[in-house]
Amino acid sequence: MVNKVQEKVDQPANLTRIPKKVLNREDFIKLFITQLQYQDPMKPIENHEMALQLAAFNQVDQLSKLNESFENLLKFVKAQEFGYAGNMVGKLVKVEGNVGRVEGGSFLGASFKLDEPANQALVTIRDASGKIVRTITLQNLSKGAHTLDWDAKDNSGNPVPDGNYKISITVGEGEHVKSITPIITGRVTSVVFEDGKAKLKVNDEQTVNLEDLKEIAWR
Fold first, then answer.
1. For residue range 67-107, what is the model confidence (pLDDT) as tens digits?
2. Rounded to whole angstroms, how far apart are CA atoms 162 and 165?
3. Is residue 132 within 8 Å of 125, Cβ to Cβ?
4. Which residues make beta-bridge pairs with 164?
5. DSSP conformational letter for 159
6. Closest CA to 136 of 171, 162, 181
7. In b/e form, how buried is each residue of 137-150, taking b as 16+ CB within 10 angstroms?
8. How many angstroms separate the CA atoms of 1 and 9, rounded?
9. How far apart are CA 197 and CA 207, in angstroms?
10. Contact residues for 80 (Cβ-Cβ < 8 A; gap 6+)
11. Dihedral of CA 205/206/209/210: which sign?
12. Biggest alpha carbon distance in the chain?
């Protein structure tokens, strides 16, 4: 009597099959049934072995259902996050960055924080081409938060056009000069989806995560 398992092994393979890395519920059932069909009649599967395999099958089934539930939950969370982010388009937010904005002839605002007192801080404001339009020198600054008051005018006193402006702040003098990243007030112009997360486009230039927002102005 020819062993059916051996016949199956000896048959030439016409196709190259790439094995799955993960067995799903249907794969496990097919594998279990095939094992029963081709078991050695002289050495049938023992009761305890069958019990172990059935237990393993039950575990695979539960994991499959859990994975499906988790995927559905993840889709729901992403949809909620994207919807929440979408409602923020057009709103003003405060984020760490160096691109400020002028709208309707007014600067939307910016601030910065000092970890220690400083005798002097130099604020340099550049337009989109990189040209310096305004420099502001601040004196005798205490430790803590400070507001950047810019009247949206250039060094000659002329109003600057609406648009984005790069703001750089340095404190100290000589060898002790260091840069400080300001907190700018910007307009949320769109929502993008990157790396599986909804992110905000601020001033049409800076992309930020929702958790990186410092403040939201619902107007």
1. 666 565 555 555 566 666 678 888 999 999 999 999 999 99
2. 9
3. yes
4. 101
5. B
6. 171
7. ebeebeeeebebeb
8. 16
9. 12
10. none
11. negative
12. 104
163 Cβ neighbours under 8 A, 6+ residues apart? 101, 102, 127, 128
The answer to whether 165 and 136 are in contact (CB under 8 A) is: no
pLDDT tens track for 21-76: 555 556 666 766 676 666 655 555 554 565 566 666 667 666 666 666 656 555 55
- CA 30 to each of CA 17, 58, 138, 203, 210: distance values in angstroms, whole numbers, following the listed order: 16, 14, 76, 56, 46
Q: What letter does residue 16 receive in the DSSP assignment?
A: -
Distances (CA, A) of 67 to 61, 63, 76, 114: 10, 6, 14, 48
Q: Name the least confident of 2-11, 116-125, 135-144.
A: 2-11
Q: Cα Rg for the chain, rounded, in angstroms?
A: 32
Q: Exposed, middle or buried: residue 201 (CB in 10 Å: 0-12, 13-18, 19+)?
A: middle
Query: Tokens in use for 49?
Result: 């072995």
What tokens appear for 6 in the block?
């051996």
